[in-house]
Amino acid sequence: MTDASVSTVTIPAAPHASVVGREAAHFGKLAAEWWDPKGSSAMLHRLNPVRLRYIRAAVDRHWDLDDRTFAPLAGKLALDMGCGAGLLAEPLARMGGTVTAVDAAAESIAVARVHAEGRGLTIDYRAGGVEAVAGETFDLACSLEVVEHVADAQAFVAALAAAVTPGGLLVMSTPNRTWWSRIALVEGAERLGQIPRGTHDWDKFLTPDELTAMISDAGFEVIDVTGLSVGATGFTLGGSTALDYFVTAVRARP
Length: 254
What we know:
This protein is an alpha/beta fold. It contains 7 helices and 9 strands, in the order E-H-H-E-H-E-H-E-E-H-E-H-H-E-E-E. It has helices at 21-28, 42-62, 89-94, 106-118, 153-162, 179-190, 208-217; strands at residues 5-6, 77-81, 98-103, 122-127, 138-144, 164-175, 220-231, 234-238, 244-251. The longest helix is centred in the first third of the chain and has 21 residues, at 42-62. The chain starts with a strand and ends with a strand. Residues 1-14 have low confidence and may be disordered.
C-alpha cells in the first residue's frame, strides 16, 4: 500500500470558465454523502462497476494488455475530470495509474482527499474546471457524466482533448437527449428521489452524433460508442444509446 498523499488545491491564474456556479453548488451540497452507497449518490455506486468494466476493456484493448493484470495503468498518467468525491479516481489509482482528479465543487474535493488518505492512495485532487490541467497531458483522460454540466460543451471537449497525450485515450459518458432520457432521468428518477432533484438539465444533454463530432473536431478518432441501459438487474452495456452512452477516442500521433 502506498503512503497517503493529497495535494493542495491547484487553481491556475486563468478563470475556470467551464464551471457553472449553480452546478458546482448543487453537487457540493451532496459531497458529505458521496461515499454512502445508500445516500444521494446511490445511483453512482450502482453505475460504477459498469463504468470500470468499460474503461478497463478500453485500456486493455488500446495498449494490448492482458486483462488479468492487476495494474493495467502502471506507468501511465490518468485524469478524472469531474471526479466528484473520487468514486472513479480511486479505482484508477488502484489500477496503477498516477491519477489527477478535478472537480468544480471544492466540498467534493475535500471529501475525496479525506477518503483517499484513509485508504493510503496517492491522488492529486484539484478544485476547479478543466482549466486546472491546462498545459498538462495524460495517457488516459476520463470524464463521465460531466459534459452535460459545463458552461460550453464544445469548449470543454476541446480543452479536455488537449490534455490527452498523442496516442492517448479519451473516455467520456453522458446522457443522450431523447424522450427516454427525459422520462427516465428527469421525470422519473429525479421525481422519485433516486437522483437528487435539479441534477439534470435535459436541454444540455448531447446526442452521440453531437458529442462524437466535437471529439473529432478536436483531432481524435472515435473508435467506440457503446450504450448504457438500465433494467431489472441494474445497469448494462449494449447497443442502445437511448438513455446514456460511452465514447472512446484516440488522439492521433503527429
